[in-house]
Amino acid sequence: MSFPSLLRRRSLIVSVASAAVLVGCSTDSDSAGSGGSTSVSARLRARAARDSRGLLRQYDAVLAVHPALAERLRPLRAEVAAHAAAFEEGTASPTATVSPSPTASPSASPTVPADEKSALASLAAAERSLADRRARALLDVPGELARLLAAVAAAGAGHAYLLTKGDR
User: What is the H or E stretch that residue 118 is in?
Assistant: First the structure.
């Protein structure tokens, strides 16, 4: 089996698994708790959406510098966009609540390595780092939000694998 078809097959498996988990997650359960946990959940959702939007900017920057990677990156980028939308779904006003991170403004474009292999490695590192942060946050959130974070963290780990497996 050729590398491109293997990549598409594994991307499809990761995509289907992520979509199935995201579809099963509902935001209603998160608001059923006390006022304190609802505000914690809302803040975490806003931060998770912001982080996903930042990761989208990284994908877009890599695609702008390395358009030949579009076929490989497009499905992963689409999932990251779906993750951002899933987190934004639970916020009062997605555009107002999801503010840029203090370390990166929306207009600031991430630095992209000149060679494709390094660009993919930087995306994989960003995916892995975000997946790890989300996995650690699971301990501090209630039910459905924890499931959503777990699903998105797992998808991010899958993305990191898909981004780096061609290098071996």
Answer: helix 116-137
Give me 120's structure tokens: 């993919």
From 7, 15, 43, 2, select the one nearest 142 (Cα to Cα). 43
One digit per residue, pLDDT tens: the chain, 168 residues?
Answer: 444 554 554 554 555 445 444 444 434 444 444 445 678 888 899 999 999 999 999 999 999 999 999 999 999 999 999 999 999 986 654 443 333 333 344 456 789 999 999 999 999 999 999 999 999 998 888 888 999 999 999 999 999 999 998 655
What is the distance between the alpha carbons of residues 100 and 119, in angstroms, rounded to a whole number? 23
Nearest to 81 by CA among 62, 54, 119, 99: 54
Counting every residue written for the chain, the total comes to 168
* Helix H or strand E segment including 158: helix 143-164
Element counts in the chain: helices (H) and strands (E)? 6, 0
**Please, which residues have CB within 8 angstroms of residue 109's CB and are 6 or more apart in sequence?**
57, 61, 64
